[in-house]
Amino acid sequence: MSGVLQPMQDFAHEAVCALRAALRRGALVGMALLIATLGAAFLVFAAYIGLRFLLGPGLAALVLGLALLALAAGVLFVARPSGRNIAAPPPTTHPPTTPPRPADAATMAVFTAAFVLGRRLADRLNSSTKS
User: Fold this and answer.
1) Among 41, 45, 64, 89, whose CB has the most other CB atoms within 10 angstroms?
2) pLDDT at 49 over 80
3) What whole-number distance in Å separates Cα of residue 51 and Cα of residue 47?
4) How far apart are CA 35 and CA 32, in angstroms?
């Protein structure tokens, strides 16, 4: 019995380790974004203080607002989708030379569980519609 459960336990352990690593990376990226946002805010504040003495407070705020809007428009312009169709590459005429790898035990266990669950749900739906 443990021979059947061992691949599932190994799969679950690997999934938990991968999830922890992804959460750690996500937390680090979130911290980096927060620090970058604070840095950008301080730069905008420093620019406002510098321009305030040259142009006055109202005009300095207007110039900085326009500059930030222009920056946002530039970012949106770069991020817009291009007119090119970048769907799938054209199909190759030759079949792949490497044979497909057989599925490991964890993949087969998950596939079998999903198949059995799908059949059970389909049978339950069919029996409820006939009644």
Assistant:
1) 64
2) yes
3) 6
4) 5
pLDDT value, residue 84: 60
Residue 83, pLDDT score: 60
CA angle, residues 20, 23, 25, in degrees to nearest 5: 110
Q: Measuring CA to CA, which residue among 4, 71, 82 is closest to residue 44?
A: 71
Tell me: pLDDT of 94 over 80.
Answer: no
Query: End-to-end CA distance of the chain, in Å?
Result: 39
Token couple for 60 = 């300095």
Mean pLDDT of 37-64: 89
Cα–Cα distance, 69 to 3 (Å, whole number): 62
Cα–Cα distances in angstroms (integers) from residue 66 to residues 41, 70, 72, in the given order:
16, 6, 10
Q: Which amino acid makes up residue 120?
A: R
